[in-house]
Fold this protein.
Amino acid sequence: MGNQAKFSAGGNDHEFPILSGSVGPDVVDIRKLYAQTGMFTYDPGFTSTASCESALTYIDGDEGVLLHRGYSIEQLSEESSFMEVSYLLLNGELPGKAELEDFSRTITRHTMLHEQLATFYRGFRRDAHPMAIMCGVVGALSAFYHDSTDISDPVHRKISSHRLIAKMPTIAAMAYKYSVGQPFVYPDNSLSYTGNFLRMTFGVPAEKYEVNPVVEQALDRIFILHADHEQNASTSTVRLAGSSGANPFACIAAGIACLWGPAHGGANEAALNMLKEIGTPDKIPHYIDRAKDKNDPFRLMGFGHRVYKNYDPRATVMQKTVREVLTALKVNDPIFEVALQLEDMALNDPYFIEKKLFPNVDFYSGIILSAIGFPTTMFTVLFALARTVGWVAQWNEMISDPGQKIGRPRQLYTGPTARDYIPLDKR
Ligand code: SDX
């Protein structure tokens, strides 16, 4: 008998198997706990709960390690491309030259949207938040691509996966164009995935758009940094939605909705707004005091993480990229200085040291995106664009898992026990 976890309750002893992965914490398999003990576990926020088995992404929060299919985020962000990392996440291995060319070509040829969807955009107010538009349009995709929503068919799953990865840049760019009142720009198949997105976002029919290679490479690296991240809130949302058999477009729309929250993907927009509100380095101590004040709901946006208790390796790569982009674009953004000094002061403050609060992926990203020309309302849209490949890969992994079943947690009930109805004239 392998390792067993012993558990005593109500005068009875129980044993549950301990399972080991290839790396990281072991898990106690409690699938039979309720049947054997009549008790549930209690773990709101799932701080100690493994919801699934996965081979996609491994995070070591204490060591600041992030691996995608075993490759470190430092090496992938330096050596690879978002298309190649997308292939790796979906297929498990780095592609050969021919495989990468074939995958990129397939994605390129799915970048156009059904023309009727352009009309869908016109139902929104021009000042709608682009995330509201993205939620709506992605959910509506299942009304257009129902020829690939049979989730039991691996061919359908593959086509839907490619369509989602390919169309998110087009959907994101159209949301931006609609918000600024400019015409939609169609995809250009001669450009790279990221170059095509830049042209659809910033190009106009009135003149030729030249992709800036520095910006293209920086944005492609940012997409790599956001591609997947284990069982975060939005990925868990996609998995839970998918566990009921919902079509992939509806599942990704659910993930987008969850990502929008300021505690999650919405933090990049909130972090830049916070840095702008601080404005100058002399105001930093006041905001650090507010973040430490239990009676003040203010938190340092872009700081802290459920898993990383040392540093977020993506933030380290992001800070380096900020320097490269600002230098290349000759942008002298005083907000970057505020961010650097805020990080330095927070990391030397006992409160942040004790609570292991470090900059996360969202702390610096807004500075680069702002320098490239994106409004803050587009920051989480870009996060969703990049995270789509992670969501899709996690969804495919779940659907292909023979042990997969509908996710249905239980609860600790603290409401009223059974009581009789009181007629209105007796109350
Ligand atoms: C992302 O899960 C993922 O992987 C997410 C993500 C991904 O790639 O998918 O990495 C992307 O969502 C990054 C996180 C972006 N969010 C923010 O930057 C928002 C600010 N951060 C916090 O809201 C918070 O740190 C969370 C939500 C990120 C993590 O919260 P936890 O793990 O639930 O921790 P907690 O809220 O219990 O905080 C622990 C303590 C608390 O103090 P005490 O109650 O113990 O006294 O630290 C404090 C918190 O008050 N704290 C902060 C803080 N974050 C936590 N205090 C000030 N500023 C902060 N940012």
